[in-house]
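User: Sequence recovery, please. Input:
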């Protein structure tokens, strides 16, 4: 396994360091997970996606020196109210198939980029990928987890499934296309 250059992955290391004191699992996902799988940065990033289990979202409140903002249902960012629980699926009572999920954004002096928390559901170690009211697939957490230099990240195939956005009213982005190409083109995956 090739060694990643620390300078290229400074934002990832900062997030991993921030979350290391929490007694709950977390994974790098999104474009940075693709980069970790490939072993080098394939594109520029505007944030870092972190996957956590919905049962563990409360642990984020223990982070010191971090501003946590809630983006509720696609609205503007605002404070995360005390006692407000978040779930992996769309907000409760939502009937629209393309409804936006609540998201948390972490920002702080020790984070070079904002971090977006993506919540996942898991029952007895099986992670369920949910799109609207249906669970499309479920895999053991151990099967969707890879490590590079001790950094846990979500496997590229699961990242690409999340980026596919079936049934959502969101178009694919340039970043989504670049992530797909990084996984689909063998020369990029094996480049050192």
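Assistant: Recovered sequence (192 residues):
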């Amino acid at each position: 396994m090739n060694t990643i250059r620390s300078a290229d992955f400074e934002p990832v290391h900062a997030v991993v360091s921030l979350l290391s004191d929490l007694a709950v699992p977390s994974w790098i996902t999104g474009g940075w997970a693709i980069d970790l799988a490939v072993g080098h940065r394939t594109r520029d990033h505007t944030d870092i996606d972190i996957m956590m289990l919905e049962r563990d979202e409360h642990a984020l409140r223990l982070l010191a020196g971090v501003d946590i903002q809630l983006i509720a249902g696609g609205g503007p960012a605002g404070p995360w109210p005390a006692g407000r629980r978040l779930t992996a699926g769309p907000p409760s009572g939502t009937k629209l198939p393309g409804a936006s999920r609540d998201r948390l954004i972490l920002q702080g002096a020790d984070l070079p980029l904002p971090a977006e928390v993506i919540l996942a559901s898991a029952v007895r170690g099986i992670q369920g990928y949910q799109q609207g009211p249906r669970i499309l697939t479920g895999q053991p957490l151990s099967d969707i987890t890879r490590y590079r230099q001790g950094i846990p990240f979500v496997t590229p195939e699961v990242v690409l499934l999340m980026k596919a956005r079936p049934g959502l009213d969101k178009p694919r982005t340039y970043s989504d296309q670049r992530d797909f190409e990084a996984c689909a083109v063998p020369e990029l995956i094996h480049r050192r």
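Confidence is low (pLDDT under 50) at residues 94-99, 188-192.
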